Each structure stands twice: as structure tokens, then as C-alpha cells.
Amino acid sequence: xxxxxxxxxxxxxxxxxxxxxxxxxxxxxxxxxxxxxxxxxxxxxxxxxxxxxxxxxxxxxxxxxxxxxxxxxxxxxxxxxxxxxxxxxxxxxxxxxxxxxxxxxxxxxxxxxxxxxxxxxxxxxxxxxxxxxxxxxxxxxxxxxxxxxxxxxxxxxxxxxxxxxxxxxxxxxxxxxxxxxxxxxxxxxxxxxxxxxxxxxxxxxxxxxxxxxxxxxxxxxxxxxxxxxxxxxxxxxxxxxxxxxxxxxxxxxxxxxxxxxxxxxxxxxxxxxxxxxxxxxxxxxxxxxxxxxxxxxxxxxxxxxxxxxxxxxxxxxxxxxxxxxxxxxxxxxxxxxxxxxxxxxxxxxxxxxxxxxxxxxxxxxxxxxxxxxxxxxxxxxxxxxxxxxxxxxxxxxxxxxxxxxxxxxxxxxxxxxxxxxxxxxxxxxxxxxxxxxxxxxxxxxxxxxxxxxxxxxxxxxxxxxxxxxxxxxxxxxxxxxxxxxxxxxxxxxxxxxxxxxxxxxxxxxxxxxxxxxxxxxxxxxxxxxxxxxxxxxxxxxxxxxxxxxxxxx
Amino acid sequence: xxxxxxxxxxxxxxxxxxxxxxxxxxxxxxxxxxxxxxxxxxxxxxxxxxxxxxxxxxxxxxxxxxxxxxxxxxxxxxxxxxxxxxxxxxxxxxxxxxxxxxxxxxxxxxxxxxxxxxxxxxxxxxxxxxxxxxxxxxxxxxxxxxxxxxxxxxxxxxxxxxxxxxxxxxxxxxxxxxxxxxxxxxxxxxxxxxxxxxxxxxxxxxxxxxxxxxxxxxxxxxxxxxxxxxxxxxxxxxxxxxxxxxxxxxxxxxxxxxxxxxxxxxxxxxxxxxxxxxxxxxxxxxxxxxxxxxxxxxxxxxxxxxxxxxxxxxxxxxxxxxxxxxxxxxxxxxxxxxxxxxxxxxxxxxxxxxxxxxxxxxxxxxxxxxxxxxxxxxxxxxxxxxxxxxxxxxxxxxxxxxxxx
Lengths: 553, 405
Description:
The complex is a heterodimer. Chain A is an alpha/beta fold.
């Protein structure tokens, strides 16, 4: 269906090629997962399938990409629209019309599908993706999961034989992500659509893949069946890491498979003391648990819509708190209200006896710092050096560390002359975090920091968070990422429709919830382990991998 | 296509809500505008505004564009106010001796080269009233256009464009959606600036806000272009180079003909014999260009708006006042353009008034608008007031479109 024949892609002004000598054959009806660290050519590989690379992006493509017998050299993206459907990371920015039904029909109108066929296909697609009740709704009023399903539907109506999806679930909460993935697997199973999918959160998709294509940092690509590929890939979800550690063979891809292997490991772990709550790198500098922020009855409304409904919250120093909940449950609104820059219609927030909302912005950020969902909103200068100098001026003269020193602690050795837009997601987050830390806030709020980060970047973020908590700061993280929360947070708050519905220690909240339980917890239930690190901290590696249960002395 | 069952139209006992064909609303509104342009009688214009109000109140939907009418109303009031003010300040009446003088503004002597223009002077009832009538006429025209925009979805109206102009329509639609997105970006970035201690005022703040907003807008437009390209926008179809050239030549010639013709008709110094043939030739050339250009377009239309009985009724009800007032039939010229010198109380001529009232039929003739079941919009965070927010995903975009950082 898709053939890559010695493909090498080089962008203009780039030091070297993004993809090197890629030869790949994808047969019809396969679900192929493209994996690799952030910043390697995953998006480029997906873009070559319908000719966006190089027809739209520029650059040079050597070799040949053939899709359903058509050479992308001679067929620009629009001439491949009837064969390849492309869904991007941000569905909203790709919408052309303004209601669901018209969006579903758009591709077909371009392909001159007769009106009666169009009508029928729109209805079928609405049912296939379970969005029939949304047909008249304006696109911008939909939730993230709904938008993503509409985006998939809008390319499906053209009956493409190939679907290319670039991180379709990265902005979604676990439940919405499952809806989208269920829709995709249904297309593969029922309609025989060939799917090419790139995703950072492998734990969500790896069990559905027929094949894995790994893009390495040097631009080379290898492919194979999931179990054998994942034994060696640089990025791997927790289930695979646990499987590698315990040398389970064949490597289980899903929680269900892993549980069948897990009996021996469970038996050995059950005799041990229960795991440490969270792996700490250092003892907290200050006494943990002193109250730094107290919020009472916080209400945030946008017109008739109540985003936060009378929330009470106490934050302690040295504590890492995760705020979870589905898209639109009020997590971000709560964070902005706590910082004081966002609206707050009722209630009180007290930090050190003052309300940050009553202070000028420059003072408020010394109490509570916030890193927003789009860190790039805070950056506006041409080079990193200028940004750092500006941040030093904003911090005032009494800062103990310069922003450069702070940044080097988070991400060492970023070039001074680089444009902030050319930083990777992880580096940009580190830069904004350093800028916010320069004000030395007691409390640091992070809004969806793990988006677009691979496992390595998330691990280093968890390290940074741990460091900040060790300095006695209180850190609050709003996120959908269950595995990250399991590795980084002491306390979890779950919000739903503006209310706090659960609040407790990470293990208590996560293990009790089927949607939010991390993979390791599901595999080792009823034992209360959340991460692979906890398992290795409890058992020496050679004992984890022993195949037979030993007698407990 | 199979025969469409007759579900819609006036024959049904119960009215099925559906949007009226946008062209019907535009014909109706332009008909009223034509009628308005023929009269300065405040009673007739007031009646016309009343008709607009009744129809809008009855037949507009809940969509955002439908709520825009009040802004046209504000614009109309501004037009009236400016007209009256300018007349009072600049148009000081010269033969004020015979008029009713209200008060005198201090007069500013102007140099001789500005002869004919005067600043200040007496403000008379006659002058003010005549400015008020003129302003009311302009304001009513603005309201007619506003009514068309409130009643018909502007985007659906553009879909009716002939195939050859499709690209133009898409460009307009896309640019229409840019403005609200920019506003949203500005709000988001300004809020984010506060997090860095910025106050959001002053020249410096302008740069802090403008750069992230422009970068955001550029990136979004690139993403939209990529999405449209991969979904088949601009497929060339079977057009040959020759047919494209012919289309271009015909369209340009046609446009020239239209311009010459229009100026010939409107400018009395140009002989009429030159105006009419040029206009006709230009129209023909344009039509031929559109037909030939449309032939190369391979595109179909999803659920095109039907043109049924209701559309005929609405369009005709708007054309009646236009026809009556243009034909000048059943009333005297003085009654539709009441004199302000000498001052007379305007009378309400019966035939034009009735003709304008006919346009109110649209309030009943048009089917009720569809009202989608409104559900609570989900909201998250001040950064995404309507879930429409680009931040939602800006975080994991590649550095440049398709080019991973």
C-alpha cells in the first residue's frame, strides 16, 4: 500500500538529512506505529506519505515514495486526497468550515462526490465515530476528544485507504483517548484501512499495533513486529520496561498479557514491605508540610458556565500535587485563579497572609509562579541570551541565581544564540520554568507540562519537579498523563465539572481508579506499586528476573 | 439524484424549521435598500426600519453572526450623528435670514482659497432637519445590509458563488475566521505576560504581545493551508492551459466593459449610446468567463440550500417596495422627499407605505430558523474561553509546520 524506496529527506538550511535511506513496505490493512524520541523525523516520515513533504514543507526528497501505485513525486497532496487522509496534532487548526456536518462533507466536495453519495457517507461516518448527536454543533464548542473524532471523520468520508495520524491523543484525557483509539482500531478491523500512527504515549497504543517503525536520532529507520522491536527501542512504555526487567518472553504488550506473566513477580514482591510513596533524590531542605497556600470556596465562571465550583485547597511546602480530570473539568481555571492572573468570582486565596490577585503582577509571581499550557506565549525576543537578560531584569536585583544558572540546572548547555522558537518542547519548557523560578516563588504551578515530551524528557521533568520540592517549594501539576503523575506526584486531586471529587496520596487515588491507574499498578494489583522504579527499589534486579518463585525465608 | 420529497415549503401545515436560501435574504434586503435610497421621508424610513426589526426578531437564528445586527445599528446611529454634526459645523447656512435659527456657533474666518467652505455660523432648523433626513437614509441602507448579514449565514452565502469564483469565496471565509482568532490569541498572550510580571500597557508591551500573537497566527495559517491541501483543495481537474487563458481574458475584458458601462450610465457627460452597449458587452463577457471557468471546476456541493416557495415569497416581498418606489407610481415625488425649506411636516404617502409593509410578509413567509440543541460548552481555563483555543495543542506542534524542531 505504501512503499518507501531508499528515501532520504533533507530540509533547506539543515545540517544533515532528517531521514536517511528509508526503505519500508506497509501492506494494506496494517496499523503501523511510528515511535522515536522527540525531534527525530517522525512527523517528516508521516508527511512524506501524502506528499506534504516536500511539496508543502520544502526540502529535498531523494528516493521514491509510492502510495497505492501513485508516486508522490508527481502527485501533490491534493491529488492524493482520495487515497490518504491526514489528521494533524491540533484538529482545530485544520478545520476549514464551522459546523460538524459541513466539515465532514468538505473533502468530498473537493473530490466532486455526487450529492446523494455525500449525504449517505456523512450519516455513516457520524455513526461510525459515534458523533451523530454533534452534527449541528459549531466545531469550536466541542471538547478535545470530540474535535479529534470529527477530524478523523472529516478525512474518512473521502474513503481513503490510508489514514495518517500524528499524535492523535496527545491533547486528550485517558477516557477521550480511548474513544479515539477505539474508533481507529474499528476502522482497521472492519474497513481494512491502513493506519500510520505516531504517538509519544506508547502505553495507550502499543497493544493495537501490528508493526512498529522506529525512527532513530540519526534518521535511520527500522521496523518489525511490536514484541521484538520493543525489546530494544529507546522509548518504551512501563509495561515493556517491566517486561524487559523481568525478562518475560514473549514481551507482553498489553496489561492483560503482562498479568499472565506477573504471578511469580507478585509472589516475590508480596513478602516485601510496601513500596516507598515516591522515590526522593534528597531530603527536603525545610520542614515538609508547613502550609503555604490556603484557598477557600474558589469559584470561577465564564458567563453562565461554572468552571470551578467552590473549591477548598491547602498546599504544603515540599509537596508535589497533581491535578487530574477530563478535558474541561476546570483544572486550568483553578491554577490561574490560584496564581491571581485568572478570573476568580468568589472565595479567598491566601499565600503568606496575602492574596496574590491583589498584588501587582511583578509581586504576585514572587509568591506563585505559573507555567501556562503554551510556554511560548511568554517568549518574544530573538535569541536565548536576550530572553535570559530580560528575565534577569524582571526578577529584580535580589535574585540569588541568574536565570542562566537556573536554566543550566534544568537543561545544561543550550546555545545562547539559538532562537527560542527553535528550541525543542522540553528545552522551551525548561527555559520558561527557569524564567518563572527566577522570581523564587513559594509555589509553582505547571499547566500540562508533559505535552509533546517523550519518556526521557518526562523523566528529566520528574527529576526537576523532585528537585524543586526538595527545596521546599510546593509544586502543582495539571496533567492527563497518568504515568507521569505516578512517578512525580505525592498527592493527587481529581476534578470533575468544577468540583474536587478525590483528594489523597497518589497511590490511594490512582490505584482505586480504573481510568487513572498506571500500567504497573494494573499489572501488579492488588499490590500497590505504581512505577517500575518502585519495583526495582524494592527488589534487586536479579531477583526480579528470576523465572521461578523462591521460597520466602 | 432521486426526487426530493416535498417536506418543506408553505404547503405544510406545520412549519419545518430550516435556514432560508441566503440569496433570498439578500434579494429581500437589497430590495428594501433600493426602496430606501429613493426616499428621504423619515416616516417611510422609520416604517422600513420597523419592518427590518420585526423580520429580524422573528427569523434570525442563535448563531454568532445573527447577533451582529446591533453593531450595524450602532454604526447607523453614528452615521446620523456625524452627518448632523458636520452640517452644523461646516455647512453654516448662508441665507439664514429666512430660516429658523436655533443658535449661532462662533464663526471662524477662513482664507480666501477656502471659499465656499465655512466653519461655524448659524445653525438652523431647516439645515439640521435636512442633514437628519440624509443621515437617516444612509443609516437605513447600513441597517439593510446588516439585516441581510444577520438573517443569512455569510459563509453559506459565499458558497452560492459560481464555481469559477470558488477560490475567492474560500479566501474570504478563511480571512473572516482570522479576526476572532487574533482577538483570542491577544487575550491569551496578554494574560500570559502578566505571569512574567508585565503590566500589558505601553509601547514595550505591544511588542511583547504582538510577536507571540503573530507567530501563532502564521503557524496556524500554515497548518490550515496544509490541511486544506491534503484534503483536496485546489485539485486541478481537467483544465487545459488554453481554457484558463481564455477565462482570464474574458473576465478582464468583461470587467473593463462593466466599468465603462457603469460610468457611461451614471455620468451624464458620457453619451448614453456608449454606456449601454459597454455594460451589456461586459456582462456577457463576464458571464462567458464564469461559465468557461466553472467548467474546469470539479467540485460538488453538500446539501445545497433548496430554492422553494418560501424563497420566492421572501425575495418578491422585498422587491415590491423597490419596484413601487423606483417606478414612482401612485404617489407624488414631493411626498417621498419632503421639503425642509420651507419647513413642512412630512406626510405618509399611502402607496409607498403599503409597499414597504409588504416586505414584512417575510417575517411569516420565511420558515422558522433552525435552533441547534444548545449544550453547555465545556470550558477549561482562562486561556481557553470557548474551547476554541489554539493553546490546546500549540504545545506539541513541531517547531515549524511539518519540520520537527
